[in-house]
Amino acid sequence: MSDLITLVGTNGEHISIEDGAMLVEPKSEFLQAVENGYAFSWSNLSTDINATDTVLCVENNSSTLDLYIEKILLATDASGEMVVHTSSGATMTGTALTGVNLNRNSGYVAPATAKADETGNGQQAASYTGRLYIVFALADQSVQIDVGGAIVLPNDHNIGIDVTAEPTGCNATIIGYFKARS
To answer: Residue 174: inside a domain, yes or no?
Structure first.
């Protein structure tokens, strides 16, 4: 039978020791970024977009930090393909959005440009040469893609979400975090 010892510090943090070994549960890079004030959510209000317009596009504007994408969400009232794509060097146009810092105690502002109903990235016209994912989205259902930081955007690179149908109501959310370029 093993002995489990738990020590609780004055700050509420705790460690556990079992059979002489300390048990640790490391934080993910994403949770560490939230704690440090470097994690953000970009989300557009439900909007009526044209077929193949970009519902939401986020571009990294930092020359020293990479933007790691953690999660992508989409809801639409029209069934059709959801195309997640990337490009660089685009002049983004559309409705400006501000990233929301997931650590509400932090005043850090995302070094990023975000646009809703974006039309300047050119991916649709280029037959989606920068496509990362294509998922069929059903009307009135939400789609969630967990990528766990596997999409990394350096400076001047963006990630966008297009819907190939003609929805009258569509919204998207991109969740990501910034980390020093290695």
So the answer is: yes
Contact 40, 112 (CB under 8 A): yes
Taking the model in full, what pTM does it have?
0.85
Burial class (CB in 10 A: 0-12, 13-18, 19+), 137: buried
- How much is the pLDDT for 1? 59
DSSP state of 116: E
Q: Is residue 147 part of a domain?
A: yes
Question: Cα–Cα distance between 15 and 28 in angstroms, integer?
Answer: 17
CATH of the domain at 157: 2.60.120
Q: Which residues of 43-80 are buried (b: 16+ CB within 10 A; e: fewer)?
A: bbeebebeebbbbbbbbbebeebbbbbbbbbbbbebeb
Range of the domain at 61: 32-180
Separation between Cα atoms, residue 152 and residue 72, nearest integer Å: 13
Quick one: pLDDT at residue 166? 82
Residue among 152, 48, 147, 36 at smallest CA distance from 101 = 36
CB 60 within 8 A of CB 157: yes
| pLDDT at res. 126 | 65
At 79, list the tokens. Answer: 């069934």
